[in-house]
Amino acid sequence: MQQGIAGNGFLILPIAPRHTAVLTTLPFHHRDPFDRLIIAQAMVEQISVISGDAAFAAYPVTCIW
Fold first, then answer.
1. What are phi and psi of 59, to 5 degrees?
2. pTM of the model
3. Where are the domains of the chain?
């Protein structure tokens, strides 16, 4: 698994207090807590999200797919 992650240039993004601070301020456009955490991380880190979930469009994140 580690080879696949590193071999593709992926990094594991840990959950940090700065992510959960943003998470607590998000409106409930999306009800899934894990997806809301991904949204908060993307907002804080200013990175895109790979998802086909249409509910992500309600947040200020760039979705790829």
1. -115, 160
2. 0.86
3. 15-64
